[in-house]
From TrEMBL:
Source superkingdom: Eukaryota
Protein name: S-adenosyl-L-methionine-dependent methyltransferase
GO terms, molecular function: O-methyltransferase activity; S-adenosylmethionine-dependent methyltransferase activity
GO BP terms, alphabetized: methylation
Key word Transferase present: yes
Keyword annotations of the record: Methyltransferase, S-adenosyl-L-methionine, Transferase
Record flagged with keyword Transferase: yes
Family, similarity comment: Belongs to the class I-like SAM-binding methyltransferase superfamily. Cation-dependent O-methyltransferase family.
InterPro entries: Cation-dep_OMT (IPR050362), SAM-dependent_MTases_sf (IPR029063), SAM_O-MeTrfase (IPR002935)
Amino acid sequence: MLTSVLSFTPEMAATVTEYCTEVSDDVTPEMNELWDWTCGQFDDADKMSSPLQGATMMFLATLLKPKRILEIGCFTGYSALAWYQATKKTQAEIVTLELDPKMIAASRRTFDRYGLNDRVRLVEGPAGDSLKTLSGQFDFIFVDANKEGYEGYVKYILDHGLLSPQGVIMADNVFARGMTISTEANPYLPDKVRAYWTENGKALRKFNTFCKQDPRVDSILLPVYDGVTLIKWKD
């Protein structure tokens, strides 16, 4: 195999996703319940991580054993629930940033419903401002907010030492539904969201270049889900 990505139709991609989910460790019942609830409540629920990606998040958290987690972008709290349940042994502190009042309300519902408030703190407002209120270091940072903000967020994190020496940053959706690669990369993308994701693709191309060129870090873009970039301090 000369390439790292298999070419799938949407139908085959759905079949592959179903198969991978079946043969992988499942997420918790609470995460499945929240995923179903989000899909039923929000028209843009496709922005939420899939159950398979949720299982990946839990796998990474149990592997890395972070003591402090930061996520930029909370949506309905699905990823925060993943971090919380995967770090019960280490009792990790989780800080999550969210701007959208609708998502803030949904996240607080999640935290209350599943008892997360003892270790999860939601900071409301623009992420660029909220980052400036944080202190200390984080062992795992998940970036999944407005795509034009990724470069600024990660640069601030690196410039101000918010990432611990052995920490990892995980940036989600760096493919922007394929628009980062090319505006012709995804002929199946609905017209109603094509302009939105095309603009995101422009911003994320800049972000990917920034990650590659910053001499302080190592980074790798994985062709999984909607593109995931992992970043760590250079050894």
